[in-house]
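Chapter review: from sequence to fold.
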Amino acid sequence: MATNTQDVNRTDDERTAEDAAAATGTDAMEAADGTSPAGDGGEDRGTGAAPRAEEPEEPEGPEEAGAFEEETAEKAPSGVGLGAGAVVSAALGLVSLTGGWIGTVAAARETLVGQLQTSSGASVAKQIREVYGDAWHTTALWAGLFALAALVTGVVVLVRPAFGTSGRPSAAWIRSVAWGGVSLGVIGLLLAVLKYSDALLALPSTG
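The token string follows.
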């Protein structure tokens, strides 16, 4: 019986040693893997990796802002066409007051035609009407055409921004010049009508 007790005790000791060795091996393997049976905190310490924060979005740099401003400037109307139209309107208004070289040439041609068509034996009234009266009416007609062109051009320049895609008003100087062209056109048109109807600077009477 003594022999059996010793065998049993020896067997328990051997089992205890084997269990201790197995536990030591398991701890070594866990340490090598970087994990710990201590729970979540042990896993965080074993991995040694903190949660990665989201990178903040970088603000727009000066280059991107400049590119956006250039693109906006390209889309916006430059107003060059309206400015040119306003200047043309004012110029046509001035020409309507002076008659222009076209009116002068047309009046000289009408004078020549009147001289050719009028005989030397015609009455003084007919000579005046054919030689000077028709030339005067021709000058008034051309002045009225220039005045009408100035008036229409100025009005188009003034009302064009209201029908544009951007809806932006035109520059102040463009509106000022356009209004000047419209005013000169109205004055030139009125003078042309008065001259053509002989209400202003009528032909002298021969009676």
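Two observations follow directly from the output. The helical segments are 2-33, 40-47, 62-75, 80-98, 100-117, 124-159, 172-196. The mean pLDDT is 74.
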